[in-house]
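[SOLVED] Need 3D model of a three-part complex

Original post:
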Amino acid sequence: MTATRRTTDTLVIVIVMLLVWQALHQVAGSTALPAPLPTMIYLMHAVASPRFAENTTTTALELAYALVLAYAIGLAIGVWMGAHRLSGVVGEPILVALYSLPKITLYPVVLLIFGLGISGKVAFGALHGILPVALLTMGAIRAIPPVYLRSARSLRLSPWQTIATVLLPATLPEIFTGLRIGFTVTLLGVLLGEMFASKSGLGFLIINDMSLAQSEDMVTVAIILFAFAAIANALLLWIEHKLHRRV
Amino acid sequence: MKNSSLPHEVHAQVAGVTRIYPATGHHPPVHALGPIDLELGKGEFFAVVGPSGCGKSTFLEVLAGLQKATAGLVTFEGKAVSGEVADGIGVVFQEDASFPWLTVADNAAFGLRRNGIAEAEVRRRVDDALAFMGLKDFARAYPSQLSGGMRQRVCIARTLVLQPRLILLDEPFGALDAQTRLLMGDEVLNLWRRTGATVLLITHALDEAAMLADRIGAMSARPGRFIDVVKTGWPRERDSTIVAETAFGEITARLWERLRGESLKALGHAAMPAMAAE
Amino acid sequence: MTRVGAIRFAVIVGMIGALELACRLGLINHQTIIPPSEMASTLVTLLASGSLNADIARTLGEVMLVIGLSVVLGFAFGLVIHALPRVREALDPFFATYYAVPIFIFYPVLIAIFGLSAIPIVLIGVATAIVAMIIATLNGLDRVPPVLAKVARVHRLSPVTTALTLQLPAAAPYLFTGVKLSVSYGFIAVIAAEFILSPTGLGRDIADAYADFNNRRMYALILFLLIVATVVNGVLHALDMRWAERRSGGRS
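Solution:
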């Protein structure tokens, strides 16, 4: 009963948003903002076009590389700062300060170091993702109740057994939260990278569409990116809830 | 100053009061309280004991005017109380209700300032109340710097400055350790004597009730009703050393005899609602 | 300074020193990174010349406008949504997903609608920052202890007095978290928007300097923005710590 009502209410809000879109279209005109319905029709065709497929592949590839880097470096920093108390206490405020900086200012530096190709965008994406992964991993390790370690010792577990059977299961839910947030900001970093001085990827496509006044294409790309990010996040959240419930 | 043993003037009256929480969603209605009849004498110290979730707090809130009775009548100083807290009633809650953003002195002054009392008078009354509650040295401290017992004193001081004639205490020492509770008991007795106010104390501790009150109402498991009202017969001048008296043991024993079955009921049959009420 | 603080300071100074040394020794190409001392001296010269003043005023003005709008409107929306549980339930999925989608890619769409001016920049800034404030307001109002409502009734306070003297201060720590996030998000979005596409502003300056291979100017501007953002975030953090200490010594 209440679940259906909530779904209806959410649908009402989606409809209101579509109406606002339509109204904005009326005010701004077709060249600036296409109406919802023609955009949806356009979307169906655009998805199949080779131009779209090429740029999607680029973005997906960059995102994959950036995630591997962000996760590997972030986890390494997080484990180190979580296990070594002094490093953690010294480093945490530095990481927190870096996290809230406008990292876009560092993009030219990244480009100067890694070049204008795919590696610059990958590095910039990874730069975004490393911090939340490191911070949440560190938090997860620090939050392990000391009694777990005492229990492990009283059961005479080897260090490897302790990690595999106690530490990893105890920290996994929290670390996974870091990986989810890392995914979100890495995607943002990659797209920001593509929007500046780039010749490929979905971020580039949006900027290019804007300068060519191809607003239908631009809105289409934005919608597809929103949908992809929302679905990926929902999936990761679902796994995260399962992990949290188990603990 | 009146002695509780003298024939008393009725200060507050509860007549045929019941409280039924209406059904919500898939929960059936809950008959929480009553019917209850009680007369509180002016200047009397009355304690209510009973098992967890029996409706003690509901009773206090109905008497305070925080909840409306489903049926029956509550009067305070001859006027009906219904859904609004009457002037002259002070309430101290079980939860820590001190305001963490105000100093101890500002906490105590809260009600007076809302009533637009002149600042000089506010300061005088706050100083008095803080001195009385032993908080004088902490006037400029924030509640977070104090222990739980001290914070509860801040809440009592905040009530005291308004010079209430009926003070309702809802398990105010529930979260404190046993020794602190004994000392806080002495302070409540002191406050009761000094102000001449009528005091109603809700507690789950039989010894606390037996030590403090003139009369003790033993409440049944839900729906809460008085199954016994015990007169303690203590003199007005008394303190926690009363626990050494033989009568103290007798009163506690009698209360436990009446409540043992009710507590078992509350544990077994109503374990879930009792937990929800915590 | 505490021992930890001293170590932290030493780590930061050491890292800057190492960068300086690596640049000076030629381990790092001058075309890639210039020595930090050169960044600083260029920045001082630039600031002294006054040539940056207009762009600084413009960018910081936009950032402040974004923060002001986000905090005030976010709080107002938060209050309204909190009062309407059904609307809130319906909006919950959107709030939960909002920061998981790259809202920023909407910036070019805003340019297409409003033209290349300050309007899309402020709008994308507000869009990025305001939801954090709304969520923080909802959180804060949720965490107001229920006993405060009873206290309000014992003192016979009017709804407005209750809101101002009890609910607002009780929710204040959460509201401040919202303000902090709004500041940080507002800053990030405005700078990013300027950098990627805008007629003026510090972000645009950096992009121009990069395109002109003017590394000295570029690094000086980057340094300036990083200092401003760090100082602002640091001040907010310090305020937060000070209030938190006073308010939550022994509390959960």
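Edit: The mean pLDDT of chain A is 89.
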